[in-house]
Design brief:
- With 606 residues, this protein is an alpha/beta fold.
- The protein has helices spanning 25-37, 48-58, 74-83, 101-110, 122-134, 144-147, 162-170, 177-183, 196-199, 220-238, 252-255, 261-265, 278-317, 319-390, 394-427, 440-450, 452-455, 476-496, 554-564; strands at residues 17-21, 41-45, 62-66, 92-96, 114-117, 152-157, 187-192, 211-215, 245-250, 270-273, 436-439, 459-465, 470-473, 505-514, 517-524, 568-573, 584-595, 598-601.
- Strands 12, 14, 15, 16, 17 and 18 form a 6-stranded mixed sheet that branches. It has a 5-stranded parallel sheet with strand order 2-1-3-4-5, sandwiched between helices. Strands 7-6-8-9-10 form a 5-stranded parallel sheet.
- The chain is elongated, with a radius of gyration of 47 Å.
- It is an enzyme of class 2 (transferase).
- Pfam families: HATPase_c, HisKA, Response_reg.
- It comes from Gluconobacter cerevisiae.
């Protein structure tokens, strides 16, 4: 907007840059003359849209905008500036012809920093602008972390005589300023003004106030107090701190006179009349407090930025060394991983070797006497039966029957010892280590027939075999792994049916081909397996069964057989539909390759 009536001075770098957005040309010329004479570099616009473009082009130190603009209003302009990261830090002074609290509150909520009437004295407007510029350009929008901190506000009351205090108590309003600010979540302290307040350490440090609200009168003592406070603020600023903000409440009659400008010259950031609406006053206090909190947040971010810059510089100085060290660490990590894998295999091999030696000792020390004892037990049984026909006395017959009964019990015990030796031999892979074609359904039927005494009439076994019937693998995959898991499932169902004469439950056996793997699962609806035991059940001799009913080798055998096939075995909750309990599901997975004869397991012996 041109101003032909007077010549604009040459702009220098130290002149404050101001953008004036005012649609009234006459009023804009009046303000322009005042600002140019006061040493401001001025750029004018007549609408919000034009002002927005001018602000983005010039990036001024201060924006003075009228609330009533054609098109975009002053509040919308302020809101747009606050949304832009490049312009959100620019102070905004709003000019209005309507000085009502509602209009002021709307302007402050939209992002304006201060409010002044167009009818105010020009010197007062200049002082208000200089107060905004005095706060510096380092203003940031308060982020969420800053909003979490409660603003610290101190209300400094003028000294009163005892009679004045009594009158104040009687005429106290229903809601005071302190109560209103406290309800907004701020920390509010009310104190009486004295010279000792200036010297205290409470005006600096981490717990210093964000805003001082001063009750000012018409005497020189009030101006003196404001100057002392401003000197204290300058000391805080020189020490690297963020000074507190000050808002003065002056008598309404003096506020409307030019003499109120003396308080701005004394360092006050904002000045309001004593008859201002309480909500509007609280809004101005919140604006000052948030501005100070924003600067404090900026300082913290600047400190962090400098620390990060130092750290980055140190990191750059060691870049080559760090790169070489990272490469060495990667090699070391890979080597360490290989060593851990080798160690795990060595430990497992050592376990197998120890168990092999144990099996060899058992086979040598127990198998021969065991076979001798079992063979002669049959001879003793035949001899006792012959004696029954020779001595026909009642006493002899009774003793012979008793001997035969005891002999049968002995044979059962000997058979258990023989089964234990067979389990140990199978665990050490002394038998059935070659890969051969196995008829999976037939092998499952054989396993179920051998476990018929455990399954009984109350356990329902369902099969869902979707994988091919024939599989080239170790027969132990079915003879030991699947059979042991089915046997454990039957035992789990028996534990769940301890109060019933008949063991009831469901076992589901399923198989399928998926992603180049032959998978088989055995699920039950028993009590399930606790998570803390799932990593231990494959250890040799670990068992959850009562003493005398389990050897702790079944799942250890299963694990070693799966390892020979380069396969995996996983345990999870079954959750069968309509099941009695959570149940356990053992999922077996073998890597295979497809041939003309069918799937072939790709284990070590293949």
């Amino acid at each position: 907007m041109p101003f032909p009536e007077f010549e604009m001075p040459m702009v220098t770098s130290n002149m404050p840059r101001v953008v004036l957005v005012e649609p009234d040309c006459d009023h804009a010329r009046q303000i322009a003359r005042i600002l140019v004479n006061e040493g401001f570099a001025l750029t004018c616009a007549t609408s919000g849209e034009e002002g927005l473009g001018t602000i983005e082009d010039t990036m001024p130190d201060l924006v003075v905008a009228c609330t009533e603009l054609p098109g975009m209003s002053g509040g919308q302009l302020a809101r747009r500036l606050r949304l832009d990261a490049l312009t959100r830090n620019i102070p905004i002074l709003m000019l209005t012809e309507d000085a009502s609290p509602g209009v002021e509150r709307e302007g402050l909520e939209s992002g304006a920093d201060a409010y002044i009437s167009k009818s105010a004295h020009p010197d007062l407007m200049v002082l208000r602008m200089r107060a905004l510029l005095r706060e510096g350009p380092e203003l940031l929008q308060v982020d969420e972390a800053s909003r979490l901190r409660r603003a610290r506000i101190v209300i400094v009351n003028s000294p009163r005589e005892e009679e004045d205090e009594d009158d104040t108590v009687e005429e106290a309003p229903e809601t005071t300023l302190g109560e209103l600010l406290w309800r907004d979540g701020h920390t509010v302290t009310s104190i009486e003004r004295s010279d000792d307040l200036i010297e205290g350490g409470w005006l600096r440090g981490a717990d210093s106030p964000d805003c001082l609200v001063l009750e000012l009168g018409s005497g020189d003592e009030d101006l003196k107090f404001c100057r002392l406070l401003d000197a204290r603020r300058q000391a805080v600023l020189e020490a690297g701190g963020i000074p507190f903000r000050t808002l003065g409440i002056v008598e309404a009659s003096r506020f409307r006179r030019q003499s109120s400008g003396e308080f701005f010259e004394a360092g006050i950031d904002d000045l309001v009349p004593s008859d201002i609406a309480l909500e509007a006053l609280a809004m101005r206090i919140r604006t000052l407090a948030q501005r100070r909190m924003a600067q404090d947040e900026f300082r913290q971010q600047e400190i962090e930025r400098q620390q990060n810059a130092l750290t980055l510089e140190a990191a750059r100085a060691k870049a080559e060394m760090a790169e070489a060290l990272a490469q060495a660490n990667m090699e070391l990590a890979r080597t360490n991983e290989r060593l851990l894998q080798a160690q795990s295999k060595l430990v497992q091999t050592a376990k197998m070797a120890s168990l092999g030696e144990l099996v060899a000792g058992i086979a040598h020390e127990i198998n021969n006497p065991l076979a001798f004892t079992i063979a002669h037990a049959d001879t003793v049984a035949r001899t006792l039966k012959r004696l029954q026909g020779v001595n026909a006395t009642d006493e002899a017959t009774s003793l012979t029957k008793k001997g035969l009964s005891r002999l049968e019990s002995m044979k059962l015990g000997l058979q258990r010892i023989q089964n234990l030796v067979l389990s140990l031999r199978r665990f050490s892979r002394l038998d059935e280590s070659s890969f051969q074609k196995v008829d999976v359904p037939a092998a499952l039927e054989t396993a179920l027939a051998l476990l018929a005494h455990k399954l009984g009439p109350g356990i329902v076994v369902r099969k869902d075999l979707q994988a091919p019937a024939e599989l080239v693998c170790q027969p132990a995959f079915l003879n030991q792994v699947v059979m042991n898991i089915i046997s454990n499932a039957a035992d789990a169902l028996a534990d769940l049916s301890v109060d019933s004469d008949v063991v009831r439950g469901t076992i589901v056996i399923a198989s399928r081909l998926e992603n180049g793997r032959y998978e088989m699962s055995v699920s039950d609806d028993g009590p399930g397996l606790p998570h803390d035991l799932r990593t231990r059940i494959f250890d040799p001799f670990f068992t959850t069964k009562p003493v005398g009913t389990g050897t702790g080798l079944g799942l250890a055998i299963a694990y070693s057989v799966m390892e020979a096939h380069d396969g995996t075995i996983e345990v999870m909750d079954a959750n069968l539909p309509g099941g009695h309990g959570i149940g356990a599901c053992f999922r077996l997975s073998l890597p295979i390759r497809m041939t003309e004869e069918g799937p072939v397991a790709t284990g070590r012996a293949a």
